[in-house]
Predict the structure of ABC-2 type transporter domain-containing protein.
Amino acid sequence: MESITMIVALLVPNFLMGIGITAAVIMLLTIAAGLYRQLAYLPKFFWQYPMSYISFTAWAVQGQYKNDVIGLEFEPWVPGQPKLKGERILETDLGVNSNHSKWWDLAALFHIFVSQGCFLYGTKIQGQSSIAIAQALCQTEF
């Protein structure tokens, strides 16, 4: 979240706009995580495919669910029925795809953080170089 805040701070002109836009971006990424509604019930065009893949919250929540639920057995809803497997709870109740492991989620989360850091660093270097060029061009001798 801090890297998103820093990226937004570099792109907006004042402090209040930065706070508002950062809150909006983090809210959009949290909606795409599947915390409030299952990902299958969100519209596919915007929320499922681009937003859920770039949302660090989605990868973190899915990895945490897999870490907590896979391998466990739960009591059934109706007494006397067989116990429920954690994989079934993961896919039906939580709406998380269990085709890949929690380590893939962790690797995707690490990749997102590294790419955000590289983007932030590149934007910062570009901003510093443009300031240096502007100062060099503005220096005139009378």
Summary: The two ends are 49 Å apart (CA to CA). Residues 2-138 form one domain. Residues 69 and 123 are 40 Å apart (CA to CA).
